[in-house]
Amino acid sequence: MYSTRRLRLRHVLPRSLMHTFIHATPIVVVYVLYHVLGYHNVAIPMAPVTIIGTAVAFYVGFKNNSSYDRLWEARRIWGSITNASRTWAALVTELLTQSHIPSSKETARQMVLRHIGWCNVLRLQLRRNKVWGERYYQSYTAGLQHKIDNNFADAIVETLDRFCNADEKNFLLRKQNIATHLLHLQIRDVKRLRQQGAINELEFTALANVVTDLYNQQGACERIKGYPFPRQYAVFSRVFVDIFVILLPFGLMPEIMKVTPGQPWLLFPICFIVAWVFNAMEQIGDLSENPFENALTDIPMTAMCRNIEIDLREMIGDTDIPERIQPVDGILM
Q: For residues 229 and 290, is the Cβ–Cβ distance under 8 A?
């Protein structure tokens, strides 16, 4: 996620300019045929080109709106996860520290730590198995390229070592969806506490409702991850932009010669600017359509998990509190 007010050009220009320079071929062809060789029959009326450009703008705008909806929904989901995490820790610590069962306080601590583990495991699972190819976080200050959460298995083991005991770790590593079974362990402990009399029926229901809400939020994330932006919209958006940019110089060249007969070179800057605008619009939608793919514009799940960990560790009285994740070169992951 960009954390600065202004976008830095090195984050935006390379990809859009690459497509723009690829589109330079029809511009050169039109210039040579029309102006150098004098084949004026290559020109086409500007009216159909304008109609196509208008249609493409509407189509790309629809794609961008739909992509933004997916990005914003993902951000709202993780906002809900943050709120539910605080609710979970508050309920668990307050209910169990007042319990008459001696082990309740340690159980409360373990349930809070296990929840921190769930947040981080969910983050790792959402960033696993990239749907449309690997994306990278470029550390421009160091001049190096790093993959985020490159080794999923090692990252999972490290997370479980930090937040779960050995028996839970061995149990979870045999499961395919570890985040789901972490919540299962939570509800198992809630049931055991009710059976021991550490909590009453209303308290049991309150804790179970929080776990249900967390299951719902996890499922919403998995829905976005597992059902990518419909490819018919994404693919044809790029195709339509390419068609418009290719046709543009064929219709624009005679118009330029009518207005400024002695300056045919104006075809190049005008076409380049228009092509860059449409390519940038297309790129914006492309970067927003899958918000869990480690792109620079994606949801900063690493920072949000760290913020949750800080809040919850303070609730259980820990003193070894980790530092908040800071943006690197204006990017917060």
A: yes
